[in-house]
Amino acid sequence: MILCCFLLFITYLFVILSLYGGFLKxxxxxxxxxNPETKFTIIVPxxxxxDNLPQLLNSFSNLDYPVxxxxxxxxxxxxxxxxxxxxxxxxxxxxxxxxVSNSPKKDAILTAINLAKTDWIITTDADCVVNPDWLLxxxxxxHQNNAEMxxxxxxxxxxxxxxxxxxxxxxxxxxxxTIGSFGIGKAFMCNGANFAYxxxxxxxxxxxxxxxxxxxxxxxxxxxxxxxxxxxKVHYLKSANVIVHxxxxxxxxxxxxxxxxxxxxxxxxxxxxxxxxxxxxxxxNFMWVLGFGFWVLGFWNTFLFFVFTTLKFAADxxxxxxxxxxxxxxxxxxxxxxxxxxxxxxAVVLYSLFxxxxxxxxxxxx
Length: 366
Hints:
Layout: H1 2-25, E1 40-46, H2 53-61, E2 70-76, E3 91-96, H3 104-113, E4 120-123, E5 128-129, H4 134-144, E6 149-151, E7 154-156, H5 162-183, E8 195-198, H6 199-204, H7 220-229, E9 234-236, E10 244-246, H8 252-264, H9 272-296, H10 302-327, H11 334-354, E11 356-359, E12 362-365
Parallel strand pairs: 1-2, 1-4, 2-3, 6-9, 7-10
Antiparallel strand pairs: 4-8, 5-10, 6-8, 11-12
């Protein structure tokens, strides 16, 4: 048992350091051409987002991009609040979601894709805001790379509370793992709040077919399909100009259910590396929780527990701090967040195996 735990921990350190190396390997992209050509359809699924949509639409109005080269389709998934369309210079329409599966978001994206007048699709969320150079960055990258699917970064903007700092630490670890996995040629994850692909590639992949039983995963499952069939067409756009900022959850309960929703789709992953990484990370976090309990009860040597904790936190810090620098954030509350995270993540994974979660005022089972 001790040997298995030791090997698991060594594997964890190796994987995290490999992702750190992969993160550094992905080169930062700079915009060089301000005469864009790519036409985009921006798709925004939403439900009960009357408070957030005006900020998102305003950020679209501030895009440094010709209004004749993009359109926006908002897909309303049965909102119970009222949202009135504002007057915009760009083409904007709101359509009702055509529900055909257990996944409202996938249905919403498919509804909009069927109406899209462009080949390039780019998705984001209603509680986000985008950088003025968002579309321009994608346009430049597309023209310099043989890409048909491009993933971008997402970061939080919010208060200075511990809840916010904890979420930013978690987001940085996810974004660092995402970018790092691209760097080592094992891409398995992305974020649908900043995700672009061609309609033609979507059709070649048969869209979301095979994953509609999962409420989420419109981004990850599609990426893993593309990686398995057309890996040379899938790229990561590492650029501060295209980072999308989103709101953090405002309560621990909402954060817990959000992470449960994210974790619940892991059983549908096709990527062997994704499953391997998930098991290793969960195993080490669970092992740390048990180790902490044994240490408190006096069953584990203080020196060994200190070495275990120090090495784990040091490896985590390398990846998180490097990612936060790219995202434009300071690495705050790292020690306290790192002490809480193994308990939080272990609870999320275990609950996701059996429990239901809430999303947009609806309950879903795995």
